[in-house]
Amino acid sequence: MAPTTDIILFHYSFSPYAKRVIWYFAFRGIDYAQCMQPITLPREDLIALGVNYRRIPIMSIGRDVYCDSRLILRKLEERFPVNTLGASQSDQKAVEKLLEKWTIDGGIFVRAGQLIPTDMPLLNDPKFTKDREDYSGRSWAKANVSKMRPEALVHIRDAFEFLESGMLADGRDWILKTEKPSLADIEAIWPFDWLTTLKGALPPTLISPTHFPKVFSWLARFNTALKLAKSAAPKPTTLSSPDAITYVTEADFAESEARVDEGDPLGLKKGQDVEVWPIDSGARHRDRGRLVGLTSQEVVLACPTKVGGREVRVHHPRTNFRIEAAGGQEAKL
């Protein structure tokens, strides 16, 4: 049975990006269903829905499909506008946005990923390492992972210091001095929480509760609040692949068709065939479809499904995504 919200989250259990969305659902008490995906390609469910984008998570609401956790969180804030987690004051919105860019575009998670311990069992799996090389565009051979570790530790220690002596220096419980975790906390905490779950990722001689007591207290507080929120939130329904595909393809669209900004620098036209892909990771996997929406914040394609004979609308953010006319015009950001 699908949830009353029509939301399905496609993810796998230890994806740190998916956790951002799952945490949001818990703190908001939003009902959703999930369709579990393999950790490596191919992901046949998404192919069946006409989606080539390879990153996780992906969220569907009806026949609208949303890619990238940043866009997903923004859409959830818009769709459920009462008691949102996002900041309401302009200065706090700026902090929230800067933390999003710091952890994602600013390289914090990239450096965190370079701290994966080389004795992690998945690094002995050629299928996994080949898949992650396709995702990241770099070698995942153990020798290369080990070589990147010292420099990554420098960057991550600096990030802990920024939180300890900056964002949390005055002893506040939460980033924006709220009564409970806000979206700003989610935007800031997720790479650090993920690292603390990877045994051996953080050497205790450099990064520990002794070195960064405020940061580790914040992490503990967040997980306590999260546990409480999850206990009160609706439990997600897990859908089989056929059920999830059927539900999406037989649903109505969740959003009305977006406009195409005629003044956009790319000069694209509504109805034009285009390709869209991320340029920071997963860049080999492009979605292609008819342009039905283009704003400063997102691009929307109408893409045919592989089953069911329907069409879904695939939404991507603009930041770090490239849009190119399918005929091969010069690519622009």
Residue share in helix = 25-40%
The spatial strand order of the largest sheet comes to 5-2-1-3-4-9-8-7-6-10
Given the structure, what is the number of helices? 10
Q: Which blocks of ≥5 consecutive residues have pLDDT under 50?
A: none
* Rg: 20 Å
N-C termini distance = 40 Å
**Spatial shape:** globular
Task: Note the beta-strand portion.
Answer: 15-25%
Biggest sheet statistics: 10 strands, mixed
Short overview:
The protein is an alpha/beta fold and about 325 residues long. The protein is built from ten helices and ten strands. Strand 1, helix 1 and strand 2 form a beta-alpha-beta unit.
What does this structure look like?
The structure is a single chain. The chain has about 325 residues and is α/β, with parallel strands linked by helices. It has 10 helices and 10 strands. Strands 5-2-1-3-4-9-8-7-6-10 form a 10-stranded mixed sheet, with helices on both faces. Strand 6 and strand 7 form a beta hairpin. Helix 1 crosses helix 8. The model has no long low-confidence stretch (mean pLDDT about 95).
Please outline the helices and strands.
Layout: E1 7-11, H1 16-28, E2 33-36, H2 44-48, E3 58-61, E4 64-67, H3 69-79, H4 90-103, H5 108-113, H6 126-136, H7 142-167, H8 183-196, H9 213-232, E5 237-238, H10 241-250, E6 273-278, E7 287-294, E8 298-304, E9 311-317, E10 321-325
Parallel strand pairs: 1-2, 2-5, 4-9
Antiparallel strand pairs: 1-3, 3-4, 6-7, 6-10, 7-8, 8-9
Helix pairs in contact: 1-8, 1-9, 4-8
